[in-house]
Write a structure and sequence with these properties.
Radius of gyration: 14 Å
Order of helices and strands: EEHEHEHEHEEEE
Distance between the termini: 28 Å
CATH class: Alpha Beta
Number of domains: 1
Structural class: alpha+beta
Largest sheet: 7 strands, mixed
Helix content: 10-25%
Strand content: 25-35%
Shape: globular
CATH architecture: 3-Layer(aba) Sandwich
Number of helices: 4
Length: 147
């Protein structure tokens, strides 16, 4: 098994839903700061909202530490907006929700489940030089705690 630790952040340019707007986010936008990439299987599921809200509640503290948070699923940015509009708990999210419908990020971080077209739950810390310093991947039947 090859490790992803110290590998370079994959090149990407994806759409995001963030603070009521659509925008493009690329690998160039991430470089120069610490970043957490928080992969989850899909919007409108049962476990994902608790994880995403838990992380949203820690977002201000992470920003104080100089860390940007990016949640990622293989849903489109339109689905992220629909989920945000439909769910009171998801409306608490202030970090960018990256859309990965082509799987470029999910494959780049090694979490893509090809037969399902969605990602495993994965949490990655990327340093300002764009290198992956922490990687945690788990089965989708196990939820996470942001602490």
């Amino acid at each position: 098994m090859t490790t992803i630790i110290n590998s370079q952040l994959p090149e990407f340019n994806v759409q995001a839903y963030h603070n009521g707007n659509f925008s493009a986010v690329s690998s160039d936008d991430v470089k120069g700061k610490w970043a957490i990439f928080f992969f989850y299987p899909a919007d409108f599921t049962f476990v994902c909202p608790t994880e995403l809200v838990d992380l949203a509640e820690k977002y201000a503290k992470l920003k104080e530490l100089g860390v940007e948070v990016y949640s990622v699923s293989t849903d489109s940015h339109f689905v992220h907006k629909a989920w945000h509009d439909a769910s009171e708990s998801i409306r608490k999210i202030n970090y960018p929700m990256l859309a990965d419908p082509t799987g470029v990020l999910s494959r780049g971080f090694g979490v893509m489940i090809e037969e399902d077209g969605m990602a495993y739950r994965g949490t990655f810390l990327v340093n300002p030089e764009g290198k992956i310093k922490i990687a945690e991947i788990q089965d989708n039947s196990i939820g996470r705690n942001a602490d």
